[in-house]
Design brief:
The protein is of the alpha/beta class. It contains twelve helices and eight strands. The strands form two sheets. Strands 2-1-3-4-5-8 form a six-stranded mixed sheet. Strands 6-7 form a two-stranded antiparallel sheet.
């Protein structure tokens, strides 16, 4: 998701090298027999493992507090769905393509960056908070990585071998910023007008990756944004628009509209990508289940952010983003984290907690919300994810 709030965060070179070693060699990495020797990911902050903050160093605590115990460049208290996926395959966490210190691309790369969109942004990051690394840019980065890897195959550098590109798993989790960045200004009807362009960009990216040799794709649909604290706070609505679970009906219906467009488009793509697995993952219904029946799955808080300012029903204040301090009405306020993020679905009002990400990842692995069915245990002896 997009945010234009920055706070200075610096680390020594020694610290950065230590972090790099931990990220590429997680302690719980266990070799697993898997048909996918690598994962190449494209997306936004829902799957960014540090790309954005490699380009624009600024992240500070309490991000990363649960698993990494330092800000790892992820928009969560810990691991993301893509991290759990890598762990289940017995792979290291994906190195961000933009990471300059200690990257290892032998088992894939992560092109996702926070605030990215499928469509090319029309203005600067520092004006709107939208990342310059749109899906088209990420695709070009992938092409560059493949070309350089083939040219430097005898160099001994930690790059993918030639056969990796055709046997890897390609994941795409993007579109949420396209949907939400203009939503308050132009409304649902305005956003709906350009959603087909978003779908077209995603579909054309899949086809280009297929032409590059990719044969296995998982595409995530959009989450129910009408349930997240930030949007409940910022988007116009009234009490009649809230369902029994506290989510905004109109905005969630608009998300369903987008998801149906994506579903149909992927069906068409399968017709022109012979021999490929093009899988639609219904992240929306998985998260909606959490928002509606949180306690049944071990969660206590749904529409309230763990990390935020103002407490209240949502604990979100747009003026003070998670981890930041700002003066409001002459008094300094700090958006701090709760002590029990494992009990929350929402980490910072916009993104999910590690525990919610794990819930989504488990569903992704078992294939029950994938269309067509795509249980990953058919391709890999999956490691347990803890």
């Amino acid at each position: 998701m997009s945010t234009s709030k920055f706070s200075p965060f610096s680390l020594s070179l020694t610290s950065l090298l230590t972090i790099s070693i931990i990220l590429t060699n997680p302690l719980n990495q266990v070799e697993a027999k898997c048909q996918f020797p690598a994962v190449f990911n494209f997306g936004d902050s829902n799957s960014d493992t540090g790309g954005f903050y490699a380009a624009f160093p600024a992240q500070q605590g309490p991000f990363g507090m649960t698993f990494f115990h330092y800000p790892s460049g992820r928009a969560s208290d810990g691991r993301l769905v893509i991290d759990f996926l890598a762990q289940s395959f017995g792979l290291p966490f994906l190195s961000p393509y933009l990471q300059s210190i200690g990257p290892d691309f032998r088992h894939g790369a992560n092109f996702a960056t926070l605030a990215s969109t499928a469509l090319l942004p029309k203005t600067s990051l520092f004006v709107t908070g939208i990342s310059p690394f749109s899906l088209a840019v990420q695709l070009n980065q992938m092409k560059d990585l493949k070309a350089r890897s083939l040219n430097l195959k005898q160099s001994g550098l930690p790059l993918p071998s030639a056969d990796v590109f055709s046997s890897a798993l390609y994941t795409i989790d993007i579109g949420q910023n396209d949907f939400t960045s203009n939503l308050k200004r132009i409304g649902i009807s305005g956003v709906k007008r350009y959603l087909p362009l978003v779908i077209k960009q995603i579909s054309s990216t899949i086809k280009e990756l297929y032409d590059l040799g990719g044969r296995n794709f998982i595409i995530f649909n959009l989450a129910p944004i009408g349930c997240y604290p930030a949007f409940l706070t910022e988007l116009p609505h009234n009490a009649r628009d809230l369902d029994m679970y506290g989510c905004m009906v109109s905005y969630n219906k608009a998300v369903v509209y987008y998801n149906k467009l994506l579903f149909r488009s992927l069906k068409n793509i399968r017709g022109i990508t012979q021999g490929a697995n093009v899988v639609y993952f219904d992240k929306h219904s998985v998260l909606l289940e959490l928002f509606r029946h949180a306690r049944a799955h071990g969660f206590n808080y749904t529409t309230k952010a763990c990390c935020g300012y103002g407490d209240g029903p949502y604990n979100f204040n747009q003026a003070i983003y998670c981890g930041n301090t700002k003066s409001i009405n002459g008094r300094d306020g700090t958006a701090t984290a709760c002590a029990d993020p494992q009990n929350y679905v929402s980490w910072d009002g916009i993104h999910s907690t590690e525990n919610a990400n794990k819930f989504v990842a488990l569903t992704l692995l078992n294939g029950s919300k994938s269309h067509p069915p795509f249980p990953l245990s058919k391709f890999c002896d999956l490691n347990p994810i803890g």
